[in-house]
Design brief:
The complex is a heterodimer of chains A (435) and B (331). With 435 residues, chain A is an alpha/beta fold. Helices cover 47% and strands 15% of the residues of chain A. In chain A, a hairpin with a 2-residue loop joins strand 1 and strand 2. By secondary structure, chain B is mainly α. The chains are: A alpha/beta (435), B mainly alpha (331).
């Protein structure tokens, strides 16, 4: 019994130790491919990591590509929130594991990627058929030594979305041409119209704009230099552009012209559905969000007017991971997805404005109208707004973080904190975040 | 046998060793060694998996975290580390965000733990009575615990929503002004505590219930013979009877409260969740750690917060021990 018992114990003990070691070892040895994609039996699998509504999957482009290239299979994973997506991307880049062959890059992260991760992304410089982009768009994803780490998808020219029915109740014009004229050329006039709206509006509690941060972003993004200067130094605290935007947005907050909502957070969506505000500064890509969340009940009540000044808020790129086993195929796919026809297709389907000059000139884009937004000629409005975007746009490493911090600072003002105090808090936080 | 003893005495062989051939002797020795290994070694082999896993997933991260906390290092470039010694700790000590987060952790901890444990005690007392469908109620009290933090927090976020939330709607129905649950400090902390209380009360109640059922029934009989009311029985028999379980739940809840993270993160949503509100009004230490590491990408500072949290727990328990010892000495 003794020997049998000890034999069994020994066997169990050995299994236990080996098992534990295998468990530990298992964590260090990943799969063969670092990106999930690969080639097998003549079939190519390409994985994609995307965020938000980039329109690639939503409009059926991926399926179309698979149909045209039967040996290609595409697996796209879409994260809802860009902040979460980017955090995961950073972690995976640092670990060198768990990446996708193709990764989406938001404009606010472009500089960080080009400065710190350029060796991890494939170079698109010299790829045939990629000379159709707006010149400033490709420069944003290029490194100092001329590497192009991705190709552009959409851009974010601005307009103002407004509720016609509320404007009527406030005694303001409702025609989009006239509304655009009300604030032509100056964001101050946009706020001035808000004061008139507040005085004139009869029938319930409706705020003039959704949030102070929307106005702030629109003003700041209309200039070449925002939070960083061309040398790459931080100027967020002394750039008069930022300060002006802060003051005007704070005015709007102090005078209760805003609904004190946080854009893209839960309170905002029911606000759209229930119509608690009359206007929202809207980049092109926001239209799909508004129409989806405001719902069928509000179709035809919304309209789009030209913004006081041009600006570019948002937009994205597609990059290919250097270590991808299907690098060439992935680059080919990216080039196809960002080609003028495909960009125009996405615009027609969901309203993301192309970053391709050729696509912008196409009739499909120029003549597009939005049924939801009272038949507004969004192709013309956003196309014209795209021409107003400054040719040079200086990006900085922490643009995304700084934007978020300013939004929170303005939320403080909306909650009743004195603007100087909120400004100082914001400056401290930015220093902590980027220092 | 006799010969072997004399030889042993002569010092040729160890005492007690049987006289055998060389081959047999080594075989015997091997089996003796194996036997000893079996007796002495097997227990270690059995616990080895735990310690291997512990070393890989607890000890190594702990050591590595402390190493990182002495450096300036960013998430994107983990291979570039700059030695800064204790600068991160000094900076944290002087950082108002740290003290704010510590204070919030304490206040949210208190307003979630105290009502939670009291309610759990009452609930367990009720469940301890003979009643119909007691199994149903016991299982029902565990349901919130089985719900994921994310789902619970998301539902409560909607309930506490400012413009269209159920609670503000109910307040409005009785003529009370709506409360800005997310933006104001105390309402936000109360709302977050509600999620914690909702999730953990049933779990603690079941722990108490198990302990209560171990109390001998004759104590209650004796107490009722002495004319003690139900309440008297509760305070004089039940509570002393489950004292060690109460201490255990307090320890667990304290650790849980120190690490509070998921509820406030989801309650705030997006960037506001990470910073614990626009004014950091409900940022806990766990959220501060996350903000430093996964929003600012400063891994060194993030690791420093983690160590500060760890040391706080150690401090709390040392203090608790000291108080206990002082008390037993004075009494």
């Amino acid at each position: 019994m003794g020997t049998l018992g000890s034999l069994r114990t020994r066997a169990v003990a050995t299994v236990a130790v080996v098992g534990a070691l295998a468990l530990v070892a298992g964590c260090s040895s990943g799969g063969d491919s670092v990106t999930g994609g690969g080639k097998k039996d003549g079939k190519v699998t390409i994985t994609m990591g995307l965020f938000g509504v980039m329109g690639l999957k939503e409009t059926g482009l991926l399926e179309q590509y698979e149909k045209e290239n039967p040996d290609v299979e595409i697996k796209a994973e879409i994260a809802g929130d860009e902040q979460t997506y980017y955090t995961a991307l950073q972690t995976r880049l640092a670990a060198g594991d768990g990446l996708k062959d193709i990764q989406g890059i938001e404009i606010g992260r472009a500089k960080e990627i080009t400065e710190t991760q350029s060796d991890k992304f494939a170079d698109f410089a010299g790829t045939a058929g990629t000379d159709h982009f707006l010149p400033w768009k490709q420069s944003q994803i290029s490194t100092a030594d001329g590497k192009v780490l991705g190709l552009g998808t959409d851009i974010g020219p601005m307009a103002v979305c407004y509720r016609k029915d509320y404007f009527e109740k406030a005694g303001l014009p409702t025609d989009r041409e006239e509304v655009g004229k009300l604030w032509e050329g100056d964001w101050n006039k946009y706020v001035e119209v808000g004061r008139t709206f507040k005085k004139g509006f009869k029938g319930g509690e409706v705020a003039y704009m959704d949030s102070a941060s929307g106005l702030f972003n629109a003003m700041v993004y209309g200039h070449s230099e925002q939070y960083y200067d061309e040398k790459g130094d931080l100027i967020h605290d002394k750039n008069p552009v930022v300060k002006d935007a802060w003051e005007l947005s704070s005015d709007a907050a102090d005078e209760d012209l805003t609904a004190k909502l946080r854009q893209f957070q839960p309170g905002w969506d029911p606000g759209l559905a229930n119509g608690t505000f009359a206007t929202a500064v809207c980049p092109a890509w926001m239209l799909s969000h508004i129409s989806e969340k405001a719902g069928d009940a509000n179709q035809g009540k919304w309209d789009v007017a030209r913004a006081p000044k041009g600006a570019n808020w948002g937009g994205a790129f597609l990059g290919v991971v250097e270590k991808s086993p299907v690098k060439e195929e992935a680059q080919k796919l990216v080039a196809w997805l960002t080609a003028p026809e495909q960009q125009a297709h996405i615009f027609k389907e969901i309203g993301n404005i192309p970053s391709s000059q050729e696509a912008l000139q196409s009739d499909d884009v120029k003549n597009a109208e939005s049924e939801y937004f009272s038949g507004a000629p969004i192709g013309q409005i956003f196309g014209a707004a795209a021409q107003e975007i400054p040719d040079k746009q200086v990006l900085g490493r922490k643009d995304g973080t700084i934007k978020d911090t300013f939004s929170q600072g303005l939320a403080l003002v909306e909650q009743g904190t004195a603007r100087d105090k909120a400004w100082n808090t914001t400056m401290e936080r930015i220093e902590k975040a980027v220092g | 046998m006799a010969t072997s003893t004399t030889k042993a005495l002569a010092g040729e062989e160890p005492p007690g060793a049987p006289r055998t051939t060389g081959g047999e002797r080594t075989a015997r020795r091997r089996s003796a060694l194996l036997h000893r290994l079996d007796v002495k070694g097997a227990p270690f082999a059995f616990v080895a998996p735990f310690f291997v896993v512990f070393a890989a997933f607890s000890f190594y991260p702990l050591v590595y975290t402390s190493w990182i906390s002495l450096h300036d290092v960013e998430l994107a470039t983990l291979d570039v580390m700059e030695w800064v010694a204790f600068d991160n700790y000094v900076e944290l000590w002087g950082d108002s965000r740290f003290w704010n987060a510590l204070q919030n952790t304490l206040t949210i901890g208190v307003i979630s733990t105290v009502p939670q444990l009291l309610m759990a005690l009452g609930l367990a007392h009720l469940l301890n009575y003979r009643m119909r469908a007691s199994l149903f109620f016991r299982v029902a009290s565990l349901v919130p615990y089985a719900t994921s933090v994310a789902a619970a927090a998301l539902v409560f976020t909607m309930i506490f929503e400012r413009d269209f939330g159920m609670i503000n709607w109910a307040l409005g129905a009785v003529g009370v002004d709506p409360v800005n649950w997310e933006a104001d400090k105390w309402p936000a902390q109360v709302a977050i505590s509600t999620i914690v209380i909702w999730r953990w009360t049933g779990y603690n109640a079941l722990l108490y219930l198990a302990a209560m059922q171990a109390i001998p029934a004759d104590r209650y009989e004796a107490a009722s013979l002495d004319g003690a009311s139900r309440w008297k029985q509760f305070t004089h028999v039940t509570v002393p009877g489950i004292r060690s379980t109460i201490v255990f739940t307090i320890v667990l809840s304290t650790i849980g409260a120190t690490q509070l993270f998921g509820e406030p993160l989801i309650f705030g949503q997006g960037p506001n969740g990470i910073t614990g509100g626009a004014d950091n009004q409900y940022q806990t230490l766990g959220l501060l750690l996350y903000e430093e590491g996964w929003k600012n990408y400063q891994m060194g500072r993030s690791a420093t917060v983690a160590w500060a949290m760890f040391m706080l727990l150690v401090l709390a328990f040392v203090a608790q021990r000291l108080i206990k010892r002082l008390r037993s000495r004075t009494s």
